[in-house]
Amino acid sequence: MSSTSSFEITRFKNRNGTSSWRVSGWLHGVRIRKNLGTREEAAVEKNLLEIRATQAAAGLRATTTFLTDPQLREAEDAFRRMEGRSRSLLTYLDYAFLNFRDPVAQKRLADAVQDYLKGKKLQHDRLLLSPPQLRCITTELNKLLKHYPIESLDKFTPSVLLVFMERRDPSLKTYNNRRAILSTFFKFAMQQEWIASNPVEKTPYHRIRHRRGSATTITAAGAADLMANIEQYEKGVMVPYFAICLFAGIRPCTRYGEISKLQAASVRLDTGVIHIEPEVSKVRMKRNVTIQPNLAAWLHAYPLDRYPILPTNAEELRGKLFRKYGLTHDVLRHTFISMFVGKFRSMGEAALQAGNSESIIRKHYLDLKSPEEAENFFGILPKHAEPKAKNDNALSPASIAA
User: Which of 188, 112, 176, 173 is nearest to 144 (CA)?
Assistant: First the structure.
């Protein structure tokens, strides 16, 4: 049997004496014989058989289907993409139906940002989000709005967001911070079914090798000189602020730091303890800071009922003093922790006093100060008044351990 297809038309005489035209041949091993009334009909049939033979040779076949031509093309394309895969097309379709969700509606970026920030402000009011965090989130999303004022959320692609995050050639840390804010925002949009996927997930994240070294501090002599000058500045109005931050390590930001929320009633000279409540603490955990004898002397000389922890213009005064003496943001707190470790040689106690982890204390504050310098630091006393004797028994880590 021939594996090729060839057809011919011949005249055929029927038993009843009439004549017909026969199309005969082989179609891939199957014998074909068909009688037709006229030669023209036979020629048409021969052409159709030859087309079928050509389609069969090319892997094509004629079939009945309810699909339209575009749907047939799409189905053919889908099966071509399935080549080499072990699962059936229906398996992948079932997975897509289970996991993919179409956005319920196009959502304007401005409306989405407004809804998202409303939730973040509520978290802030419930003390679940700090003011600096809320400010950073708000600032970044407002910049996104400024760049794309009329865009709907479904228009954002990874390439578009990458350009936005890399604006003005940021550091790797700044880029990662921007990416984190946007990623959380688009995750929120997915939960609301405004978008089907998070475009930020397909943008790069940069791994950064942190090389933070020893903390920046001032010497005991420098601290003594600083406090002597603070006493003379505006009649000592800023003495309680500097004394508490320097000799107790309270976080010093006058806008959002612990010192900005610390109440005078929490500074207990009678028991020798400063109570840092959860709503004051940066990490939302209560801790007690021991009032060292020299800090007690400062607070007796400048009592908080006459010298508020933060005067009304504290932000302005603090800024002037920090600029005048070249102080960095956390240098007062860093100095306290390093001096505490230098004097008491207890990283665990220092971690409890400062509200840090012991690993952070070991990494940044260990062996920065000698016991002699630390002793001098905790011996810095006010000059304008003598410390009162009734607080000489203020508790210290050494007495607690004993």
Answer: 112
Tens digit of each residue's pLDDT (9 = 90 or more) over 188-230: 999 998 988 899 999 999 988 765 567 899 999 999 999 999 9
| Residue (of 377, 277, 278) closest to 337 by Cα position | 377
**Residues of the chain where predicted confidence (pLDDT) is lower than 50:** 1-4, 386-402
How remote is the C-alpha of 139 from its chain's centroid? 15
Q: Which helix (H) or strand (E) holds 107?
A: none
Q: Residue 253 corresponds to which tokens in the numbers above? A: 């930001």
Query: Can you give 34-61 as a three-state secondary structure string?
Result: EEECCHHHHHHHHHHHHHHHHHHHCCCC
CB 109 within 8 A of CB 145: yes
Q: How far is CA 172 from the centre of its chain?
A: 14
In this structure, the answer to whether residues 192 and 289 fall within a common structural domain is no
- Tell me, yes or no, whether 158 and 229 share the same domain: no
Domain that holds residue 46: 1-62
pLDDT tens digits for 78-96? 888 888 888 888 888 888 7
What is the CATH classification number for the domain harbouring 295? 1.10.443
| Residue-level pLDDT at 397 | 39
What is the edge-to-edge ordering of all strands in the sheet holding 6-13?
A: 6-13, 19-27, 30-36
User: From residue 143, how far is each of 114, 122, 140, 177, 287 by CA, in Å?
Assistant: 13, 21, 5, 14, 38
Instruction: State both tokens at 235.
Output: 């009649």
The span from the CA of 15 to the CA of 90, in Å, is 55
Domain end residue (candidates: 202, 228, 258):
202
Cα torsion at 287, 292, 295, 300 (round to 10°)?
100
Q: Is residue 68 part of a domain?
A: no
DSSP character at residue 95: H
The Cα-based distances of 180 to 109, 111, 200 in angstroms read 18, 20, 9
Residue 179 gets which letter from DSSP?
A: H
Mean pLDDT score of the chain? 87
Written as six digits, the tokens of 329 are: 């943001």
Judge contact between 104 and 193, C-beta under 8 A: yes
Provide the pLDDT for residue 63. Answer: 67
Q: How far apart are CA 112 and CA 190, in angstroms?
A: 11
pLDDT by residue (tens digit) across 344-358? 999 999 999 999 999
Q: Using alpha carbons only, how large is the chain's radius of gyration in Å?
A: 41
